[in-house]
Every structure is written in C-alpha cells, then in structure tokens.
Specification:
Layout lengths: L2 H21 L3 E2 L5 E2 L3 E4 L4 E2 L6 E5 L4 E4 L4 E3 L7 E6 L2 E11 L3 E6 L2 E11 L12 E6 L2 E6 L2 E3 L3 E6 L7 E3 L2 E3 L6 E6 L12 E3 L2 E11 L7 E3 L2 E12 L5 E3 L2 E4 L3
Parallel strand pairs: 1-3, 2-5, 3-6, 4-7, 5-8, 6-9, 7-9, 8-10, 9-11, 10-12, 11-13, 11-14, 12-15, 13-16, 14-17, 15-18, 16-19, 17-20, 18-20, 19-21, 20-22, 21-23, 22-24
Length: about 260
C-alpha cells in the first residue's frame, strides 16, 4: 500500500471511530422515562404509552441534554398524557424526535434556560370539548426558553405561554399547521393561580396556518414582541393583541376564508 492509500485508510478508520464514539456518547434514557440526574441522554428505541396519562419522559434535573435520536414518543391518544415534561429544571435541551397522540407534546414548567429544537409534534385534531385543547408546546412560569425550528401539526393550540413568571422566552422559526379543530396558533395568557400574563418575549419568523386566530395575547400579557411571522387564518383574526404594550411588527396576514 502506497503512502496516499495508507493516509486515506487511516482517515476512514478515524472517521468511523469518531462516528461510533459519538453514537455511544450518551446515557440511555431510563426505561421509566424519568431523568433526575445531569447528563447527556440518547433515546434508544421508540416509546409508546398504551393506557395512561403520564409523561413519556420527565426531566427534573439540571444540565440535561436529550437526543431523541430521530425516534418517536407516542401517547395513548384521546387527549391523554404528555410527551415530555420539564419541571423545575435549568439548562435542558431536547431535540431531534417525533411526539404524537398526547394531550401536550411538551410542557416546560417552573424552569429556565431550556431549548426545544427540531421536534415534530402531531395531534389527533380532536374536537374541543374542554380546555385546554390538544397543545403542541406549553410553557408555564418559565424563563429563557427557546422554542425553535419545530413542526407542530393538527393540534387545537400550537404554542401556549402562561403566567407572569414567564419572561425572556424566544419562539422562532417554527411551523404550526392546524389540521382539524385548530383554534389558536400561539397564545399568551395567565394561569389559574397567577392573574398576570407573560412579559417580554420575542416571537418571530413563525409560519402559522389554518387556526381560527393566529396569535393571541391576553390583556395581562405585556411587552411581548411579535415580529415577522406569517399567518394564514380562517376568517376570524390573524392577531388579537389585547394589551397595547404588545407589538405587532411586520407580520404578514393572509385570510383564507372565501
């Protein structure tokens, strides 16, 4: 073997070794779905819930990264369960997977410095008989949450941000498509225990299609900026910003009603 071929062979072996090491560089997501210690986790197989309404994956520890590895979290359907619950945690990143047939795709509660990226969340398009409807992502009393480059389809509510402690969040470049029974694309409002709504979020570059109302912010939601979103709505309203401190900036609004 000449020197050039030897160098190429060594490079190929190094690339393969690096790839294999990267594939194994992470803890397996526990069978219980409960992540209560820091670390990098990788989902190794699809998770399916047949008859309960708990979260498929619950994260309560700080400094956690979860790579869903292109795999699926599938709920029981019928507006039961949660795909991923992040509760009381800081420094969490979840990416790269599919979540379907759950009441909530992802819930972020009482947490900070969280990133949700490259998730595909799919609802069943169920009729809305009680509130809240099927929801893609819900953020409750949380700060510095980034929701970016996700696809949410066939939910009654796409992204739901709640509570006066929710602030400094960024919702950007997501695709939200209603399917059937879509009511709200992105919604900002208080919680049952907190009369204040979210403050100081940036929402931009999202494509929102087919919901009755594209973006809605309650009277108690203040100083949030909605900029450069594209909203295709069905004859009701593209945006309802009920407090004048919220900003409607350079949003494109298209009424699909005949």
């Amino acid at each position: 073997m000449n020197m050039k071929r030897l160098v190429m062979a060594c490079a190929a072996i190094l690339t393969l070794t690096t790839t294999l090491a990267a594939a194994n560089d992470g803890k397996r997501v526990p069978f219980s779905g409960i992540i209560d210690s820091p670390g990098n986790y990788v989902l190794q197989s699809d998770l399916r819930s047949l008859n309960n309404d708990r979260a498929a994956i619950t994260i309560t520890a700080n400094d956690v990264t979860v790579d869903l590895n292109g795999l699926s979290l599938t709920g029981a359907g019928g507006k039961l369960g949660v795909g991923i619950m992040i509760n009381g945690a800081q420094g969490v990143r979840v990416s790269n997977g599919m979540i379907s047939k759950s009441a909530f795709g992802v819930i972020v509660m009482n947490s900070s410095n969280v990133a949700l990226t490259n998730l595909q969340i799919r609802g069943e398009g169920l009729p809305i008989v009680s509130l809240p409807p099927e929801t893609g992502v819900m953020i409750v009393q949380s700060t510095n949450v980034v929701v970016e480059q996700n696809s949410i389809h066939n939910t009654g509510l796409g992204i739901f941000v709640r509570g006066g402690m929710s602030t400094g969040n960024r919702i950007a470049n997501n695709t939200l498509t209603a399917g059937t029974n879509g009511v709200l694309g992105i919604c900002y409002n208080p919680t049952a225990a907190d009369a204040n709504g979210p403050v100081g979020d940036l929402v931009y570059g999202n494509s929102i299609s087919g919901f009755g109302v594209g973006i809605q912010a309650s009277t108690m939601s203040r100083y949030n900026v909605f900029k450069g979103n594209t909203i295709f709505f069905n004859g009701s309203s593209a945006m309802e910003l009920l407090n004048d401190t919220n900003m409607d900036m350079d949003n494109t609004k298209v009424d699909l009603a005949p």
